[in-house]
Hints:
With about 375 residues, the protein is α/β, with parallel strands linked by helices.
Amino acid sequence: MCHSCIAATWGKVVKHSSGIPHSAVNTVQEAEVDVRLAAEANDDEATGEDGEEFNFDLVNQLIQKSRGSTEFGITTADWHKELYDEVPEGYATALEGGIEFVDVVAGVTAMPLLRDVETESSPRFCLRLTPRPTFGLGLVFNKALVHWFCVLGPLESACKRLGVTQVNTLTLHSEGGGRLGFPFWVYDAVAEAYRRGLFQRVGVSHPNTSAKAVSKVAEELRRRGVGLACVFVCLSLLDRKKLALAEECRAMGLQVIATEALGRDELASGRYTAANPTGGEISVPRFTLSQLMPLRPLHEALATVAQRARQRCEKQIETTTVALQWVCSKGANPLCDVSTEVNAKALVACKDWTLTPQEVDLLDKAADEVGKAGRRGR
């Protein structure tokens, strides 16, 4: 098996999730070493001294299992240096609860705070990095310099600030307009970073992405021996425009990671309602009744499903947990801001249970009703 084929296949492995036992994760990690060694050897060298060929079936089985599993993650995208001088308490709560996938945005997240946290769990960082623009000079300057400037330099700097030698996932990130796509030297730089062991898998994040654009990015990476592993989409009960894209990406074998899984300002969480505009806090209400009343059908459905889930699962389940589980029901992996203890506990409570089809249908119908009311009000 050629280097590019092996790397492309391996890039799609989701190495750790709530659906894969820890022992299986260790097996995957050991297999990765064997895969890389086999990728660097020719077909003859890939055969061991005892004449047995490397068993790729185990890797393929783990790949298939990981695609169907769900992984919950922490997002620190809004943890700006100007807002936080220490990591919120919810971060440690989530890590100790087994949520180890941590989304970090280069240039935004206060990375040294995450580096200095002392916990028993080791976070697996997903770094969203925007390649530096070269303003057309990528065709003029030395290739090594361009690679360092647009990707390698920022990636190495972020790893240093996080206190790690590599990140679990490097996500090519953009918040601007236009279409998803990068110059060829960005793909070359990503491939070089992969060969250097600076990340284990790669993803893409763009507000205007499409299945066609994702497929093109995947092809560019595959040609360089790197497999696209995941795609970030904005998805919540109050923003379902990317549902079709999520399904198409999953059909391509990609993991879908949902940002803003609780909606804008967490209004899809069911925590802030017309009857409880402060979310149970002793404070000035964050929202007005005119903002909350149109969401009442969804909030009532969330409360109903939470009550049913508590009875069925015999555990404490709040509406925030239900909103995150709805995202999972659509085949996506939700990210949650755990700057509050409430959100951290709700995220941890997502583990080891799922919504029933009837509960998903109830939430879908409520979201439809809210959407229709919103369109009528425009």
